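Interim report to the steering committee. The following record documents the input for Putative hydrolase of the HAD superfamily (246 residues).
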Amino acid sequence: MRWQSIFFDLDNTLYSHELAFEKSIIYTFQQRYRTDKKLQHIDEKEWFSTFKHYCDELWKEMEKDTLTYSEYRMKRFIETMNHYNIEMNEKEAKLFHDQYEKEVSKFVEPYTGMKELFEELYQTGVYLGIITNGNRITQLDKWKALHVEKYIPKERVYISEEMGVGKPDREIFTSVLSKTGSIPSRTLYVGDSWALDVQASMDAGMESIYLNTRKEPRQEGRSPLAEYEHFKDAARLISNRIKPGG
């Protein structure tokens, strides 16, 4: 068998985080501000569009390490509110995100073909796991919503908050490889971020599939094993490669 172990990112790799994110952010906005006179005049979908704009703009800063993840989340909320001439502080930004984290798992729906692939991989005996950045409770809630405990038990979900290090630091990958006894050259990682997932996992000696679900232009760096926009296409390749002679 080509791979001894296969690890997956979580958000936008096993389910559409973009869709769950939009639904849960709008839901949180409605729950918190539907009776706020300062915000009642703002259409929630318009507000989300502005919020998403700042998410995307500030994400570039985070990838350059000029913002921490916590600073990124505070700033995207405050900048969005500033756009509507509404002053909000970091305390309210934190409360908003805390509520969002409690809601987001309700909107998680696995990509088509995910469970079929996991069942096939499970039958081969390949070690399956998840390596993800984020808050422990939030990421585990999403894992629970996917109903994949049979294939990836809780102890195989490796979360940056618990690990004390996050992607793109290669240490999170080398640590997981060491914990699981996985040989880097016989390990595959599937993720949606060029910098955080693809390049970082290859730096740790793993093979990588770029699941470019957001159709972003490829940046400079080494080429992954393959690039796909849809999970089902990545699943087809993995399925073919785990077969004898694949």
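Residues 192 and 221 are 15 Å apart (CA to CA). The committee is asked to note this result when reviewing the revised timeline.
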